Amino acid sequence: MSRNTCRAAGGGGGWKHFLRFLFIVSIPMVLMMILVEKEDEILEFGFSGFQYLNRIHFFFCPCAVVYFTALTALVYFTSRPRPIFLLDYACFKPPFTCRVPFSTFMEHSRLIANFDGKSADFQIKILERSGLGEETCLPPANHYIPPNPTLESARAEAEMVIFSAIDDLAKRTGLRPDKNVDILVVNCSLFSPTPSLSSMIVQRYKMKSNVRSFNLSGMGCSAGLLSINLARDLLQVYPNSNALVVSTEIITPNWYGGNQRAMLLPNCLFRMGGAAVVLSNRRSESRRSKYRLVHVVRTHKGSEDRAYHCVNQEEDSQGYTGISLSKDLMAIAGQALKANITTIGPLVLPASEQLLFLFTLIGRKILNKRMKPYIPDFKKAFEHFCIHAGGRAVIDELQKSLQLSAEHVEASRMTLHRFGNTSSSSLWYELAYIEAKGKIKAGDRVWQIGFGSGFKCNSAVWKCNRSMNTSDVVHQHGPWADCVHRYPVQIPNIVKL
Amino acid sequence: MVFASDVIISDHKYSTVVPAAMTKETSIVHELTDMDLAMKHHYLCGLYYFRDIAHFETMVLKEPMFRLLVTYFPVAGRIRVDDVTGRPYIKCNDSGIRIVEARCNVSLEEWVLLHGTGVVDLEEEGFKHQLVPRHFIARPPEHQLSPLLLVQFTWFEGGGFSLGLRWSHILGDISTAVGFINHYGKLLAGNTILVHKNNNKNDDINTSNRKAESTSVLKQVDTSERYWAVVNKQKMATMSFTVSKNHLSEIIGSTGTLQMQHQRAFEIISAKIWHWMAGIRQDKEPTTITICRPTPTHNHGITSNMQSITTVRRLAGEMDVGELAAAITDAGGDAVADYDGAPETDVILYGANLTFVYMDGVEVDGLEIQGRKAVGVEYVIDGVGDDGFVLIWNISGGGGTRVTVVLPKHQLGLLSQHICASFDH
Q1: What φ, ψ does residue A284 adopt, rounded to 5°?
Q2: Is A383 or B422 the better-scoring residue by pLDDT?
């Protein structure tokens, strides 16, 4: 096993092991040298201990200083985390054959036999207020009356979404999936076939046999950042590697055909989407990478019953399976966010904000309980915000609690309008929007916040590594290439259907 | 030996195809002209049979429709009724057209043998309704869910394939529908050039709203309470046959009129049928017939009812075929109905009088799939008045003239004897 580890670690890590070996071996050797040379003096140690130490001091001091400085430097450089770069990413752009206008959705809801009148009315009411636009997309199976999901059609959707995103990414970065991918992480919550989606990718792109592949399922809409976290941790262990992270949600098998209101919401909001991201710890990629990963903070509120049950996959009385969203969802999301902020705040906020928060906290506890809690101004820590486009309510809630302006949440709202709730990949569509609008500059910090079942709130902080030419970004056929000129749009509170 | 009872059309799947791009806010309302509204009870049914088609994915068949609907976006709309005036219009909200997929358990040849010939009862067999979807636009309030175009793809055993379409006449006349489907065929073949966008047709609306000259070509009829559909007093049936050049020569020869040599197949055939009908319908001879011709549409992609409509009146006393043909040829003008589009009045054009529709210069069998033309093409109108309807179009490549007749069943039975005697031997 150790032989494999050494080989797999590659040439890059070998010198570190050698130096560590030297360090370990050198201590007893030095001690031995001292003992052999000064043997008789050691016998008189008790009498002339001080003199002895002085002599050692004079002889060894300069060498020791150099030696121990080098040692410290070695320990520091080999044990600090490697910087992780985001080389580039690509989002899936659904074909026009998947488009679902409002009126078509409404008509289908009325025509599907099992839906009672109330269910159809409810779905229409949700759609009117959802913040979605007329160009969101559902997979081909969902265009049938009623939808006809099969394993084959689900696989077809997965292939369409994932391969398209990876092909686009390969074109942008010059990445060779067969040679250059060392780590592969795929997350897709509600579709987990055998062989896994990660195996499907390995098969399609003929990846090397020692690729480290991982398939995360069941982890909800926040799984995109979980995958980034996993890839980052793996890139700490394996030097000189690239990690391909694919985030998607496959819609085909998850259409709900029953009449429970809490379970009809996903039908209205979830749409096709997917993203592929390349992370790297190679120094050679640092210059052309778009972003550097600064922090990932994960918060899991699953220990609380209410939080655990608030997004729940279950069967209704008719036997239809669907995802039930509880009425507490927004409140729980708010609490999860607070917990996440408590961890991320100290990492990103400037000292002034942290002090203010601390003083207000002390003030509230000791002096005046009715003092308003101080909400740190995260606009001082970040230039851009990507809030999971889970629904209009989520974005409204976060805008309020973080005291963000309309411009800060524009990327989230416009992503919801153009693409709908694409689950774990929505954060990447939002970042692509910000880039397509030409708003991002080198040095800008981006905060991605994802929410999902569990209940989990995950954050990632990125720092923009280089400037981006808008025309380059748009001409690279990002998902916004053909429509960003139409955005931002005014989204009415209630759309007239 | 396959019997009609052995044939099963099954595996029906219903889906919707929408325009590939969002229709602009400014184009959302498509006003319906008075003529459009007069045609709301008629539905054009078309059927194309293809042989030896390699099976391909339904999405391959559907994809060109998405692109085509960007130009023909009113076809993807739905009927709405104005709150104030009560006048129907089309809201181009991208609802889409309905696609039906089905399988047939027999071969195309066997099907055609059983259903393709002879007198077909429209009500019971619904004009090959198993291959063409049967659907009527619902009256308000359910009109919002009624698609204006339905297309059915049916796969037969052994490589046969049929494409059936049901086009609501309110959208446009037969030449518009044929133009639409021919365009679809071109896109399917990989031709990426789209017809230019639907221009504002306001200039042409005026022609349709001209007041009537003399004879009214429209008649009020009984219609269904729930749908825009004609309720006939008699059972209607349909029949199709081909008239070759030889047949035409024989007719000319038999009448002995020199004049007719200069006339075209259309006039000759319609004169012949008119002549026979006079003999058949002794209770009420058709003294007036209506003739519809497509107007040359320079602006393709326009959906509207702009065909030119004429009436021909027969003088008292017997007229022979030659004289009838002459009368038809000489009939000019454009007698457009005095119909104000008021929704309470349910009128029809086809079947108000014995109606002849010439598909003059229209490539009715133009649709090609996989480089092949259809081996059989049928068009008929569902929702025809009791006075009857005849559709006449030229088979491309000089293959003769195709005639489809819709009449009350017993009348058609008598007519078919004449037809079989004159044209099929």
Answers
A1: -65, -25
A2: A383
